[in-house]
Design goal:
This protein has 311 residues and is mostly helical. The chain has two domains: 52 residues, no CATH class; 235 residues, Orthogonal Bundle (MetI-like fold). The chain has twelve helices and no strands. Helix 3 crosses helix 12. The longest helix is centred in the last third of the chain and has 35 residues. The relative contact order is 0.12.
């Protein structure tokens, strides 16, 4: 309506109405004219395009290299239930990877989400302790995984006498991904407008009901994005697990037994130098596994987002 009023006003004073053109709806010649007036913007555009091309080029080059090297080496014996030096089966490592991922998420996700809920919804805004916790979480997110591995080795393997076990590895990975889950959950909760909370309180809802019924549903896609990042880090982790979970190639017999994950399995095959082709095949399976997990998580996030929109 306001655009129609402006066009009518321009026509009444004898000036032609100028149609409004969006930034991304300009023709190529119009963009060139604007860039002639601001050559710095044109240079930034070239740098952005070059960065995007280099990033996508490296990504596709890695994927194509892995697929070309690995697909011809995929054999049925690589999926045998029992590992031997003849078949070099990766199925036990896949099962251990699934167990490790589930255990780590069961410990890290509730702690991360509930900690973020407290810091955003319950703690007083501007609290210095909350600020220290957030800075600490951001700092822990940047620590190399080998440091977490050494900590897990000293704490869980030696001090708590867990030895090399799946439980020691899962505890180490849970500590590793906890800052990521906590920070992404905080950002997701803070992105929910305060009007949602005020409206809920105005209708007589309590704090707990407001958090779980009003705030969490629209924040769920952001929370799941942090969980997806954590899953990717857990599945692809090697350094921390070598020091804590060990490298036994069979299916783990219990939480206090050793077992290698798929990433550790690939590292061991390459390190030995005798099963390079099987290592490339393992890399293909690992790549496909991560893609499937990400797609499943995205579908769940869309489902939550759709349910939140319906409500």
């Amino acid at each position: 309506m306001s655009e129609q009023i402006l066009e009518a006003g321009a026509a009444s004073v004898g000036q032609p109405a100028v149609p409004k053109v969006g930034i991304n709806q300009q023709s190529f010649s119009e963009k060139l004219k604007s860039y002639r007036r601001t050559p710095g913007s044109f240079l930034l555009l070239l740098l952005v395009i070059l960065s995007a091309v280099v990033t996508l080029g490296v990504l596709f080059a890695l994927i194509i290299y892995i697929l070309v090297k690995g697909i011809p080496n995929i054999r049925p014996e690589l999926f045998a239930l029992e590992y031997t030096t003849d078949n070099v089966s990766m199925l036990p490592a896949m099962i251990n990877t699934l167990i490790m991922t589930v255990l780590s998420l069961l410990m890290a996700v509730p702690l991360g989400i509930f900690s973020a809920i407290y810091t955003v919804e319950y703690a007083k805004r501007g609290n210095k302790l909350v600020g220290i916790v957030r800075v600490t979480a951001e700092t822990l997110s940047g620590i190399p995984s080998i440091v977490y591995g050494l900590f897990g080795y000293l704490m869980f393997v030696l001090a708590l006498h867990m030895n090399y076990s799946v439980l020691a590895g899962a505890l180490t990975l849970a500590i590793m991904v906890l800052p990521t889950i906590m920070r992404t959950t905080e950002e997701a909760l803070m992105s929910v407008p305060d009007s949602y909370r005020e409206g809920s309180f105005g209708l007589g809802a309590g704090k707990l009901r407001t958090v779980f019924k009003i705030v969490l549903p629209p924040a769920m896609p952001g929370i799941l994005s942090g969980v997806i990042l954590s899953i990717g880090r857990i599945v692809g982790e090697t350094a921390a697990l070598i020091f804590t979970a060990g490298s036994v190639p069979t299916v783990t017999k219990g939480l206090l037994s050793s077992g290698r994950t798929l990433a550790v399995h690939m590292y061991c095959l390459l390190n030995e130098g005798l099963y390079t082709n099987q290592a490339y095949a393992t890399a293909v399976v690992l790549l496909v596994l991560v893609l499937l997990i990400n797609q499943a998580s995205n579908l769940i996030a869309r489902k939550f987002q759709g349910n939140a929109g319906e409500e």
